[in-house]
Amino acid sequence: MGNFNPEMLQELLPQYYKRLFPYSHFIRWLSYGNVDKNYLANREFSFTLEGDIYLRYLTFTSQEEFETSLKKKCPVKIDIGAVYNGRASEHRRMANFTPVER
After folding, report:
1. Where would you tag: which of 23, 32, 43, 57 has the fewest CB atoms within 10 A of its CB?
2. How far, in Å, CA of 42 to CA of 85, rounded?
3. Considering only CA atoms, which of 73, 72, 69, 75 is closest in space to residue 52?
4. CB-based contact 40:77 (threshold 8 Å)
5. How far apart are CA 15 and CA 58, in angstroms?
6. Exposed (0-12), middle (13-18) or buried (19+): which is 5, by Cβ within 10 Å?
């Protein structure tokens, strides 16, 4: 195995997200066994893209939606946020948008 070259990251990320990322385990872990059907949909994610582009208030209702987004955007960093009382992507429409779990 060779040394890591950060310049190759943008070339390698699409392959990582297509072939290696553990989507089912990741979503099952964040859904806590799907105890509450809205648990995943109300969890905030943020992605950092190449060039320090930061996308916040992302939400996903399914593993397929999450997987499609990762493959399309190829973030260099994924942040897992709080679970809110509503969808984080709709936070501007809610008067009482607050976290219920961190």
Report:
1. 32
2. 7
3. 75
4. no
5. 22
6. exposed
Compute φ and ψ for 75, nearest 5 degrees. -65, 150
Confidence label for 6 from pLDDT (cuts 50, 70 and 90): confident
Are 47 and 75 spatial neighbours (Cβ–Cβ below 8 Å)?
yes
Can you give the pTM of this predicted structure? 0.85
Q: What is the pLDDT of residue 68?
A: 97
pLDDT at 89 over 90: no
Amino acid letter, 93: R
Q: Six-digit token pair at 5?
A: 């070259």
Q: What is the distance between the terminal CA atoms of the chain, rounded to a whole angstrom?
A: 38
Question: Tokens in use for 14?
Answer: 């699409």
pLDDT, averaged across the chain: 89
Q: Are 47 and 73 in contact (CB under 8 A)?
A: yes
Edge-to-edge, what's the strand order for the sheet holding 77-84? Answer: 53-58, 43-49, 77-84, 99-101
